[in-house]
Amino acid sequence: MVAVMEPFGGSFLTHDVRPQDIVTPEDLGEEERMLIQSLEDFAERQVAPHMDALDRGDAELGRKLFEQAAELGVFMVEVPEEFGGLDLNVLAITGMCSVRSKLGSLASFVFTHQGIGMLPLVNFATEEQRERYLEPCMSGAMLSAFALTEPGTGSDAMNITTRAVLNAEGTHYVLNGAKQWITNAGHADIFIVFAKVDGEHFTAFIMDREAPGLSIGANERLLGQHGTSVAALQLEDVALPVENVLGEVGTGHKVAFCTLNVGRLKLATYAAGGAVGAVEVAARYAAERHQFGRPIGDFGMIRRKLADMAARAYTAEAVAYRAAGLVYHALETRAGEGRPSLEDKLAMLSEFSAECAMAKVIASEAYNHLADEAIQVFGGYGYSEEYKPARMYRDSRITRIYEGTNEICRLYAQRALMKRAWKGTLDFDGTARAPDEARSAPADQGFDVVRARIADLKQVYLYLVSVVDAAVERDAIFEPGNQQLVASLSDVAIEIFGAESAVLRAEKSRTVGSAHGRLVEGLARLAFARAADRVRQEANEVLAALSDEVQLRNRLAHTAGWLPLPAALVDVRTAVAETLLEHGGMPTADLQPA
Q1: pLDDT at position 443, please?
Q2: Domain around 316
Q3: Cβ-based neighbours of 257, under 8 Å, separated by 6 or more
Q4: Both 405 and 521 in a single domain?
Q5: pTM
Q6: Is the Cα dihedral 40, 140, 47, 368 positive or negative?
Q7: Residue 218 neighbours by CB distance under 10 Å
Q8: Helix H segments across 228-352?
Q9: Residue 153 near residue 160, CB atoms below 8 Å
Q10: Given pLDDT bands bounded at 50, 70 and 90, which one contains residue 3?
Q11: What's the CATH number where 400 sits?
Q12: pLDDT level of residue 257 (50, 70, 90 thresholds)
């Protein structure tokens, strides 16, 4: 593999990536840290005392805090300066989303509006629409919701049945249909609603709450995010002025995909922030809770749990910032001295759509798993609503569903990678090496060895792709019957992306021999070991499904040459856990290298 200076979609699988090529949380500058700190202060001082009231659905309180968030400039960060916004960089926006998990139910008020509610207006609104809708949305005077999902579509978003027909006078589109699972439906002043003009042309519209014919159902009773308004919409002969078309007739897919791909980036950082929070809560409790005459953090099983939790949280943060950095640095390069155009945004989001989907999967599954592990550390108290893990567990679960279920994200990511390979954009065949080129796996897998062996995991992925490509007709690979194979390939790529991100982050930020260096090296080693185990498991799934007994033995021998030997990690976990217990959570920000 050779180094690549300008990354492109999927290039991490065919090229060496240097630490300086990725964006990490440690790259946050003073401006970004100030924004994050202001939001954290807001969460601690203004929101935390009212969590229970927000969970009970106190809409008046929620709207009041929503307006206070507007005063902080939250709804201006992604709006261009020429439209009256702050136009902040990727690190500020990504870092801002990491605070979302600390806002409880208010997060839906704030971040759904700031993201999928406002971005369609930012990217597609006319000057008149911006004046009428975007400016009030920035100030907090108006709240916007995104209405795409329908009862019969779910993940098949482009197959909506809501219809829009132009009236005889040519002045209004008349919409009929239904929407479901619309976040902020009970509070929204406007909706970005999608319909097919004449049943064919996928189109976005701006719909006012008071539009005749629009009815909003009762709030759903949710597993988590209590206090969040999620409801269905019914549209019966809703007449919208032609001036309320957002973008152009037939271009609603651009509005949707541009918004949703950015949403995956933000959700990854949000979930990563939640994962870090779960580690903090668990570590502090383990240091304080005594059983059998000593803190439970002294026990090996708790230490193992804390260390593995920290490694997953560290990886989640790494992939979230890396994916965001890929998109936005590519935009800066493409735009040069000017401002990226809408077409630039669409192109770059498409370019790195696989990485966006992978980051969403890694971070959301880490958040959900770590919230569950936090409950386990708390024991019986974790099952009580009086303690933080219960809310974390409830609130984390939805992250694996919205912005595209993780199953859809897995299939989408692998489809994007394989299509690029088939087109020759990704040179899978030219990058793959023969089995006799595999290096023997050393017994000692220290940090420097782990760094070198990331490339070996990539060889396993390339080999598995070649096996599937040879056994299954290309036209049939993505048929439902082959989804298990595709999901295994995707999981291998996802694990590689996560492990490499953690290792590169550690290498970029470490000071050899320092407390910070020892910590991040340990976290990266744990991340790599977990990824290698998962790669081995999924490789076995694929090869066993497509091989006879003789082929299977030969193919397993092939992959064994690339896979590492099991590593001794007891001491690594102990050292990581001791640091977590001492600092009350993830101390990477406190132990910055000199």
Answers
A1: 54
A2: 2-19+257-583
A3: 346, 349, 350
A4: yes
A5: 0.94
A6: negative
A7: 10
A8: 252-288, 300-335, 342-351
A9: yes
A10: low
A11: 1.20.140.10
A12: confident
Average pLDDT of 463-470? 96
Cα 191 from Cα 114, distance rounded (Å): 13
pLDDT at 477 over 70: yes
Specify the DSSP element, H or E, that contains 567: none
The answer to which of 88-92, 96-100, 264-268, 460-464 has the lowest mean pLDDT is: 88-92
CA–CA separation, 404 and 321 (whole Å): 19
**Identified catalytic residue from 78, 373, 403, 507:** 403
SS3 of 346-403 = HHHHHHCHHHHHHHHHHHHHHHHHHHHHHHHHHHHHHHCCCCHHHHHHHHHHHHHCCC
Nearest to 203 by CA among 127, 265, 147, 262: 147
What amino acid occupies position 383? Answer: Y
Range in 35-44, 147-156, 308-317, 401-410 the model is least confident about: 147-156
Q: How far apart are CA 349 and CA 260, in angstroms?
A: 10
CATH (domain of 127): 1.10.540.10
The answer to whether position 210 is within a domain reads: yes
The CB-side HSE value for 399 (13 A sphere, CA atoms) comes to 34
Yes or no: say if 359 and 422 are a contact pair by the CB < 8 Å rule. no
Q: Look up 403 and say whether it is catalytic.
A: yes
H or E element: which one contains 135? helix 135-139
Closest C-alpha to 268, from 351, 367, 352: 367
Neighbours of 7 (CB within 10 A): 20
